[in-house]
């Protein structure tokens, strides 16, 4: 599964400062899922140069079922970083 991630959030993940994502749960995330996070800037028409990505594994999942503060249809998942990669 590949997900686009805005530059500020991506940089925080790259540096190891951010270890959780809030996402619409339209992909039915599960613990153990491997997700490729790709840096994406919606304000420009092209991919950043150099293109970077981060492979993560979902380690914990909270969905909106009765949890205050999480909007219905969304979830929060924690992850561990498996690989960082720069494409040149």
Write the layout of secondary structure elements.
Elements: E1 2-5, H1 7-14, E2 20-24, E3 34-39, E4 51-63, E5 74-87
Parallel strand pairs: 1-3
Antiparallel strand pairs: 2-5, 3-4, 4-5
Classified in CATH, the superfamily is Hypothetical protein
Write down the secondary-structure element order: EHEEEE
CATH C-level category: Mainly Beta
Mean pLDDT: 91
**Strand count:** 5
**Gap between N and C termini, in Å?**
22 Å
Q: Output the number of helix runs.
A: 1
The CATH topology comes to: Archaeosine Trna-guanine Transglycosylase, Chain: A, domain 4
Question: How would you describe what is shown here?
Answer:
The protein is mainly beta and 88 residues long. The protein contains one helix and five strands, in the order βαββββ. The longest helix is centred in the first third of the chain and has 8 residues, at 7-14. It has one domain: Hypothetical protein (Archaeosine Trna-guanine Transglycosylase, Chain: A, domain 4, Roll). The protein has a five-stranded mixed beta sheet with strand order 1-3-4-5-2. The chain has one helix spanning 7-14, and strands at 2-5, 20-24, 34-39, 51-63, 74-87. Helices cover 9% and strands 48% of the residues. It is globular.
Defining traits:
88 residues, mainly beta, Archaeosine Trna-guanine Transglycosylase, Chain: A, domain 4, five-stranded mixed sheet, 1 helix
Quick take:
The chain is mainly β and 88 residues long.
């Amino acid at each position: 599964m590949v997900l686009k991630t805005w530059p500020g959030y991506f940089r925080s993940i790259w540096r190891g400062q951010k270890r959780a994502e809030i996402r619409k749960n339209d992909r039915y995330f599960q613990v153990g899922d491997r997700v490729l996070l790709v840096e994406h800037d919606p304000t420009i028409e092209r991919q950043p140069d150099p293109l970077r990505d981060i492979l993560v594994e979902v380690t914990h999942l909270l969905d909106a079922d009765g949890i205050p503060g999480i909007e219905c249809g969304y979830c929060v998942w924690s992850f561990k970083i498996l690989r960082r990669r720069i494409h040149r």
